[in-house]
Every structure is written in C-alpha cells, then in structure tokens.
Write a structure and sequence with these properties.
With about 270 residues, the chain is of the alpha+beta class. Helix content is about 30%, strand content about 30%. The longest helix is centred in the first third of the chain and has 15 residues. It is elongated. The chain starts with a strand and ends with a helix.
C-alpha cells in the first residue's frame, strides 16, 4: 500500500488531565501516514484519484483544536475514526501525537502516543426463522449500516433453508453480507449481539428458533480461537445455507485453515 506522509503539524489545543491544560491550552504536534493506492493518480495526474493532503491537514488541525480530551490516546483514536470515515480512498492511517509541554516536571523533549488503524473486511451470515423473517433481516442490515464504524458493501440474496441441528422449528431465511469495519473482532461480535437483542433474540435452545442470528464467518484472513469467538466460523464449511449466499459475494475467498475457496467448499457440500 502506498503512503502519503504529513509530518509535525503543530496544533494549539486543550487536551490534558488537568483543568489548567483544558483552560489554557498548549502546543501539540501531529504526524500522519495515509495508506492509499496512488497508482491511478500517478498515471493520470488526477488529484481526485488520490488524497488531498492539504485538506487532510486542515481536518486534523480542526479536529484536534476543536475538541477536548483528557488522554492523548483518545485524541488519536477518535481522530483515526474521523479520518477513516470521512476521507475518500483512505484505507489505513498511522497517527502520532506529541505533547512537548507535558506537565511532568522532568527534563524531557516530548511524550507521544502513536497508533495504526484501518478498515477490515468481514463476512457476516444472517438468519431468521421467527415472525416476519424478512423484516428481521432487513432490520439487522439497517442497524449495521447505521453503525459508524461499519460499511455494508454487498448483500446476497436471501434463501429459504431447512433448520440445522434442532429440527423442531420453522424453516430459516438466510443470507450473507460483506462488511468493511473499523471494529475489532470482539467489538464487532458485541455489536452484532446488541443488534440481535434489539430484534428480541433469545438464546434458549442451541441451534433453536431465533428472530435474528448474526455470525462472523470471516474477518480478513484472521485465525482466532477464544472463549467467546472463533474465526473463521467453526461450522461454516459444513453449512450450505452459509456457503450458498456467501458464494454470491466472494466465491474466490479462501478459507485460511482449509485453504479452499468458498466456491470449492460449496461444491463439496453439494456433492454429499
């Protein structure tokens, strides 16, 4: 990924734990690396195909000067979200904030915090088999689209499928969506659970009836196994109701453990 550097932008702002810092203000120094694809801009000499570093510098200045935070960590975390959600063509950003006048009463040049944040690609499976199934799926989509740190990119067709596991229940309506997100896997899971609760989801029977079910299938090429979350989804390669709609979105997507594409996994299931 190509990089555009903004180095040592000085901003007078009012960040700090002490009330005097909030009232009187002080100098902060911001640096940024903007990760983007500059190939098209380089070949066409068209600024709109790249990122206007002058406009981004002004955005950084206005955000840092126009808000007040106690922690440097909060300044750069919120600034990263501001840039990634509002600057077109920005895929990832590295930020550093320096506080040369930090009130530590010791001889030092500066203190600083640096972070790197960016968009991640996730694939989410949706399902419902209670009440107005289509309405519940659409509600889930709408709430995800309204989530600041998420962008719904594509949605598959919804398909009717027989229940998996516990058979004494109504047929499901299933689909998948492609999502760009700034949330970590754990944060994304928490957001999905909140959306399920808003749809009155109750977890009474394993694989049982539900108004809305949202599962993380893939998150980039991440492999993780924790008490709360397993990625890729541990059952996805066995579930035709996941693979069929997912194949509409990303047939080329390769399972990072099985090393087979979604299309290959779907064809294997269909042969059984």
């Amino acid at each position: 990924m190509d990089k555009i550097h903004i180095q040592d932008l000085e901003v007078f702002a009012n960040h700090g734990v002490f009330l005097e810092e909030n009232a009187l203000g002080q100098k902060f120094i911001l640096s940024a690396i903007l990760y983007t694809d500059t190939r098209k801009a380089g070949m066409t000499d068209d600024l709109s195909a790249s990122i206007h570093y002058g406009e981004v510098s002004q955005m950084i200045h206005d955000f840092v000067a126009g808000n007040t935070f106690k922690l440097l960590e909060s300044v750069v975390e919120c600034l990263a979200i501001e840039l990634l959600t509002k600057v077109e063509n920005l895929n990832r950003v590295w930020l550093e904030i320096q506080k040369p006048w930090a009130p530590v009463h010791l001889p030092l040049k500066t203190v600083s915090v640096e972070i790197e944040r960016g968009w991640h690609k996730a694939y989410i499976a949706l399902g419902s088999n209670m009440g107005d199934k289509l309405s519940y799926l659409e509600q889930g989509l709408e709430l995800l689209e309204k989530t600041e740190s998420c962008r719904v990119i594509k949605v598959s067709d919804f398909i009717s499928t027989v229940p998996y596991g516990y058979l004494g229940q109504d047929d499901f309506l299933n689909g998948c969506l492609e999502l760009d997100t700034l949330l970590t896997p754990e944060e994304l899971l928490e957001r999905l659970h909140t959306i399920e609760l808003e749809a009155h989801r109750e977890r009474k029977i394993h694989w049982g009836p539900r108004t809305l079910d949202l599962d993380i299938i893939f998150y980039d090429d991440l492999v993780m196994n924790s008490e709360k979350l397993i990625i890729p989804h541990i059952e996805m390669h066995k579930r035709n109701f996941v693979l069929r709609p997912l194949n509409q979105l990303a047939p080329w997507k390769r399972h990072p453990l099985l090393l087979k594409t979604v299309e290959q996994l779907m064809k294997e299931i269909e042969k059984m």
